[in-house]
Amino acid sequence: MPDFAYTARDNSGKKVSGTISALNRREVLASLGKQSLFPVDVKEAQGGAFARQRKGARIKAQLMATVYAQLSDLLRSGVPLLRSLEVMKNQSSVPALKQVLEEIHAAVEEGTSLGDAMAAHPRAFSEMAISMVRAGGEGGFLEDALSRVAMFTEQQQDLKGRTTGALAYPVFLGVVGVAVVTGLIVFFVPQFEGLFERLRARGELPALTEGLLGLSHAIGSWGWLLAIILIGGGIFLKNKLQTEAGRIWSDRVKFKIPIVGNIFQNLAVARFCRVLGTLLHNGVPILRSLEISSWAAGNKVLAGAITAAAENISAGQSLAKPLEASGYFPTEVVEMIAVAEESNTLETVLTNVADSLEKRTFRRLELFVRLLEPMMLLLLASVVLCVVIALLMPVLKMSTTM
After folding, report:
1. Which position has the higher pLDDT, 324 or 398?
2. What residue ranges in 147-288 does DSSP mark as E strands?
3. Nearest-angstrom CA–CA distance, 122 and 115
């Protein structure tokens, strides 16, 4: 049973605060009425066991895209929201999703908006989805908002799937290459050390061979320490990236990675442009649209630049100038936005910009992946060749001496 934190006033007007356990807000209000208390604010306690439980298991984005699309179709067909949610929860075969839909149905039944009900489940619904649904509910285009969220989610999953599939072979090559080279250095190279003792005693052992033997000894003796450092560093980095400062640092570094950074940046800008154009097309005010689209960009650094642009717009400036000043938006995108503001066609131009950026970025990503495979093979062959040369040079020197 969830815990609710309440603020109320008694008959004398004195403010009273506390927590109470109940099935829903309706029971809390009834319980406060029996105590002659007049509720001022009632919300679920953040630290309660139920609040922790509601985080729940993460639900796959592809499944959530189907939920958005089905809910949009039901609403578009004239089915009331409560009835639509009931139909969705009854037909769901995934326990985690069924529980989420049941809690959303109960919250909406009590008078909570759909967007606020979704916000109570951050592991199931993204910030972009929650904001779009809230805007759709406020602007009277909830069906279109849900449909757009479904489309955006499917696009992101399609991009993630294509990227993962394209990188599968290079990653496999990298893992196998590291394993092969490590095995050669740790187990194969030490077998030759006894043969090279005479050359080492005369000071004629090649520097490349000496370095290879030293590396083999170091990995064999201190490899466990290196593994502990790598694992500890990975855990520390994972925890760091879950903080706000870590997310900002990570998103800033993404933009600075050679070749790949430009791909990350263009995709984030494309998401921002597409969501902003969609919201403006549906009549959402520019400041509210910028707030929602900044979350949809999926990058904290870019979101900060968009927020700064919104502040300038509230002061009467145009959108293009602060975006250009941030340095995160391509010049051609800024120019197109500036022309669109003058011609009052911003929502159409933003959608076209998103299409153009995504197509260009997809081509660049495919080219990068195609070049990555031969580069990985070349790198692996080069390392193995260095090992072979380091082992053959002393053998050739000994045969020449004999």
Report:
1. 324
2. none
3. 11
Q: How confident is the model at residue 1 (pLDDT cuts 50, 70, 90)?
A: very low
* Residue 139 belongs to a domain: no
Q: How far is CA 372 from the centre of its chain?
A: 23
- pLDDT tens-digit map of 167-188: 788 888 888 888 888 888 888 8
Task: Compute, in degrees rounded to 10, the torsion defined by CA atoms 271, 274, 275, 280.
Answer: 150
**pLDDT value for 57:** 60
- Beta-carbon neighbour count of residue 385 at 10 Å? 10
pLDDT for the residue numbered 26 = 65
**Domain end point (choices 87, 106, 125):** 125
Residue with tokens 């985080």: 55
Please indicate, yes or no, whether residues 25 and 81 belong to a single structural domain of this protein: no
* pTM > 0.85: no
Report the sign of the C-alpha dihedral through residues 92, 95, 96, 102, in that order.
Answer: positive
- Rounded to whole angstroms, the Cα distance separating 105 from 71 reads 12
Number of H helices, E strands in the chain: 17, 3
Note the pLDDT tens digit of each residue in 188-207. 888 877 777 777 777 778 88
Maximum pairwise Cα distance, the chain: 109
- Reading the block at residue 57, the tokens are 């298991």
Residue that has been written with the tokens 């900002």 in this structure = 248
Instruction: Please give the Cα distance from 319 to 246 (Å, whole number).
Output: 28
- Give Rg (Cα) of the chain: 30
Residue 62, CA atoms < 13 Å, CB-side half-sphere: 5
Task: Say if 379 falls within a structural domain.
Answer: yes
Strand, coil or helix: 154: helix
Identify which of 221, 213, 214, 182 has the alpha carbon closest to the alpha carbon of residue 394: 213
Q: Are 311 and 326 in contact (CB under 8 A)?
A: no
Query: What is the sign, positive or negative, of the torsion defined by CA atoms of 25, 30, 31, 36?
Result: positive
Q: Which of residues 20, 38, 53 is at a domain's end?
A: 53
Distances (CA, A) of 301 to 122, 248, 249, 306: 21, 6, 8, 9
Helix (H) or strand (E) holding 77: none
Statement to judge: residues 343 and 220 lie in one domain: yes
